[in-house]
Structure prediction request, 209 residues.
Amino acid sequence: MSFDWDHNAFYHRLVLRRLPPGCERALDVGCGAGTLAGKLAARADHVDALDRSVQMIEAARRCVGANVSCILADIGDHHLVVDSYDAIVSVAVLHHLAAEDVLPRLAAALRPGGVLVIVGLPARDLRRDWYVEIASMLLNPVFGAQFSLLRGLTGRSWYAHEPTHDVMPVSDHAPLTTRQLADLARRTLPGSRVRRLLFWRYLLVWHKP
Prediction:
């Protein structure tokens, strides 16, 4: 029985709950194998799923529907049309990028009233986040055991890793702590909210005025 599980997929529902009503167009930054983009497509008229990995885009194209456009590009230099998206989401990608450059570009691409939702990986900050780190370490195997048992009983995925997990570009090195990311967000996205989550993640939400 494997107790390993997908922390990113665990937070997909958290992202989806923050989509605005009547979402016409959404952007998934760093879409990976397309799992979240497929879920977005059920709630938005059209989804642009963007990733710089050829393997990930090929995997995404195999699993998404007709209202998802899979785009092979790097968000760092990809042209984004101003005021073009009702929602922009990203999970476990921002730590690969220069956040101070990317966040303003994503903000500009949102339509007024649109929402930016990012689940990211923070750098370790034991002095401030020691209680979250301890809780995550204690609960991680407990959740993993439960999900493994549920997979066996129901035949559903229950946060199992994607088949492409081993070839997905991965880095656990994050340049910013949650506090540093929150400070950056306050400067670039006034009114944004950042909070630490369990299992080595944070949540950033910003509604464009």
